Amino acid sequence: MEKQAVDGARRAFNSGRSRPLQYRKQQLSALLRLIRERQAEIVSALKRDISRSEFDTPIFELIGIENDIKLAERNLADWMAPQPVKKTLLTITDDVYIKAEPLGVVLIIGAWNYPWSLTLRPLVGAIAAGNAAVVKPSEVSKSSASLLKELLPQYLDTEMYPVVTGGVPETQELLKQRFDHIFYTGNSTVGKLVMEAAARHLAPVTLELGGKSPCYIDKDCDIAVACRRITWGKFANCGQTCIAPDYILCHPNIQHRVIEEIRQTLLEFYGEDPKTSPDYGRIINQHHFDRLLALIEGCTVAVGGESDKSQCYITPTILKDVLPHARIMQEEIFGPVLPIVTAGDVNEVIRFINERPKPLALYVFSSNKKVVRRMLNETTSGGVLVNDVMVHYTINALPFGGVGNSGVGRYHGKHTFDQLSHHRACLIKSLAMERLNMARYPPMTPSRLRTSMFFLRSRSGSCDQALRAWAVVSSLLALALLISLLVVLLRDSNIAA
Question: Catalytic one among 61, 208, 261, 332?
Answer without folding.
Answer: 208
